[in-house]
Amino acid sequence: MVPAAKVPEGGNMYGRDNTFGGYSDVLVVKEDFVLKIPPALKPEVAAPILCAGVTTYSPMKHWGVKAGDKVGIIGFGGLGDMAAKLAKAMGADVTVFTTSPDKLGEGERLGVKVVLEKDKEQLAALASSFDFMLSTIPEKHDVNPFIGLLKRDCALVVVGALESLAPVNNQLLAFHRKSVAGSLIGNLADTQEVLDFCAEHGIGPDIEVIAIQDINDAYRKVEHGEVRFRYVIDMSTLKANADA
């Protein structure tokens, strides 16, 4: 048993038991841990904001992204899509870096710039120009090519990968006092903020609503990178499946 711990208001606590819910029909929790979904957000749109939304919003808030900043988003999957929308709504000048040529059209649709990571000429032209960069790539990768794109005293924050990164060249950091940092999801206050922010600015993740009966096919598509950008399960189909 883990002894009960008192956490001061605004404090942090890690390592406690999970709150069980997931696919449950009913969940009882303390009101302090309940989030209010703004009326402007449909439930299916709000659901991914509780993960992808706060995961990308929290570091931009912490590192002070503001209107006029030049922000780079590395990766254009579910996290990258949400990050680009949030940064743009904050008034930032947004550039997304991707390995997929077929994502170029997505940038145009969102009103952000898109650069292919392998385009060395474009990368060179962007040297020392970004106020903040966010890496959303969900696996081990090399951030060194992007460190050179940061201005002095600025940060590249990794939110996509929890495993070790490729070795970072400290010389790239030290000469201009740059930093590589990490962030993980966000607290309740940040989560409520991002829900309200998305409702206010009319933004949200691109989603595809699926029935529980389609979960295996959806999982296969996720494994093969065939989904854009978030699946949301219609939980009413779970009950329908049980009654069948």
Provide structural commentary.
Helices cover 35% and strands 18% of the residues. By secondary structure, it is α/β, with parallel strands linked by helices. It folds into two domains: 43-201, 3-Layer(aba) Sandwich (Rossmann fold); 207-243, no CATH class. The strands form two sheets. A six-stranded parallel sheet has the order 3-2-1-4-5-6, covered by helices on one side. A two-stranded parallel ribbon has the order 7-8. The relative contact order is 0.16. The model has no long low-confidence stretch (mean pLDDT 89).
Ordered list of secondary-structure elements with their pairings:
Layout: H1 43-62, E1 70-74, H2 78-89, E2 93-98, H3 104-110, E3 113-116, H4 120-125, E4 130-135, H5 144-147, E5 150-158, H6 170-174, E6 179-182, H7 188-201, E7 207-211, H8 215-223, E8 230-234, H9 236-243
Parallel strand pairs: 1-2, 1-4, 2-3, 4-5, 5-6, 7-8
Helix pairs in contact: 1-2, 1-7
Major β-sheet strand ordering: 3-2-1-4-5-6
Main β-sheet description: 6 strands, parallel
β-sheet strand percentage: 15-25%
Class derived from helix and strand content: alpha/beta
Q: What is the H level of CATH, i.e. the homologous superfamily of the largest domain?
A: NAD(P)-binding Rossmann-like Domain
Secondary structure tally, helices: 9
What is the CATH third-level topology name of the largest domain? Rossmann fold
How many beta strands in the DSSP annotation? 8
Radius of gyration: 19 Å
Order of helices and strands: HEHEHEHEHEHEHEHEH
Q: How many individual domains?
A: 2
Cα distance, first to last residue?
41 Å
Mean pLDDT: 89
Point out poorly predicted stretches. none
